[in-house]
Amino acid sequence: xxxxxxxxxxxxxxxxxxxxxxxxxxxxxxxxxxxxxxxxxxxxxxxxxxxxxxxxxxxxxxxxxxxxxxxxxxxxxxxxxxxxxxxxxxxxxxxxxxxxxxxxxxxxxxxxxxxxxxxxxxxxxxxxxxxxxxxxxxxxxxxxxxxxxxxxxxxxxxxxxxxxxxxxxxxxxxxxxxxxxxxxxxxxxxxxxxxxxxxxxxxxxxxxxxxxxxxxxxxxxxxxxxxxxxxxxxxxxxxxxxxxxxxxxxxxxxxxxxxxxxxxxxxxxxxxxxxxxxxxxxxxxxxxxxxxxxxxxxxxxxxxxxxxxxxxxxxxxxxxxxxxxxxxxxxxxxxxxxxxxxxxxxxxxxxxxxxxxxxxxxxxxxxxxxxxxxxxxxxxxxxxxxxxxxxxxxxxxxxxxxxxxxxxxxxxxxxxxxxxxxxxxxxxxxxxxxxxxxxxxxxxxxxxxxxxxxxxxxxxxxxxxxxxxxxxxxxxxxxxxxxxxxxxxxxxxxxxxxxxxxxxxxxxxxxxxxxxxxxxxx
Length: 522
Description:
Distance between the termini: 39 Å
Helix content: over 70%
Number of domains: 1
Largest sheet: none
CATH architecture: Up-down Bundle
């Protein structure tokens, strides 16, 4: 299978000491004349629409079935203990295979990886929608995660190689960041409407429609390129990374129901940490590393990845426990719950897209991320005082607005900083690293918040008869604990970003500027 050219600094046929133009990658398909920069692809904004649709599908599928779970459980008849695997099977496959998917996108070609991931994701969704048993549904969700791990890094690397001009890149990443940050809320809204008015199966079938549009657009807009080198894959690194991430994500998923001190999660987390340490050791010695360590050892990129991770921790906790609060405490139906998330989703999109306009467009990456962290922390702190019957517009809405604005700022800037300046040969695995941090952050957030909530409920019920009123109070206090913890996490993220990320750094990185000059603005 041939690989697409990467537009690397010294690829076959290139002039020594001269970097090929940004248009030489898969987005344009033709190399510029020697010494000249390639003109931008005139269809690049349509390419962004196709990539954005694919990203939205991948992100919203992490939450779209959450609201449908009660209906799914009633229809297929599985236990409460099994219920979590409808959600976590997707996260485990996605998180553990992202680095492999990113490297495959680099090796077999991003266009081919993008289309293969879309078609496979649609097929797995169709199987899940038709599932008659719990086992078939979980298998389908796992396959969705497998193909998402190929699709997500291919989409982000296509975006990275398609938009190279600083001004256009900022706008493109604003749109992409808006979709990435708000996709979970969109999934809750769409899942609620589909479940209430059609069936839980439609929450899976809808992916077939999304994929059909994205595949058609990809075939028409994404151009093929000639091969430059045979694909090479770091098999030991692939095994260590995939198995290490699997153990880590699986261990975090089991920590919620079993407790952090149980042997199973502790053993899995320890094994995962050891495998990932072995992976880092091997990458220093591998001739063709799966994840070149230069990608993650860069100070700016490492800080951006940390910001993506923290956002994942806090964001998934909001979606999960605010959903529980709205449905179980306030008695909202699926569709009304989804609509209740709409203000946060809208604010996230406006914030991410608008982060490159006006005064914000002149601010560097550090003030945007720090401001976003503090806004999110304020939103969480506001929701840590929720009551059972207070007005939605007073108790829930202000916290949602602040959190949505904050997450839009963080995601747009951090994803841009996390992928800018990466050698085009590493665009796929670099993009996969950003997605992996986000997915692992979500798994950590789900496990951590579930454990904190369960501990609060146990403390409130200790030595008492679990009457309905006491159970309601315990649940409400568990939500207070979760949102307080999320506020603390975002505050810590703001402090770390303030001290670790260089000041005056734009989202077009210093490393990408000629002569190492540190650009200003955005």
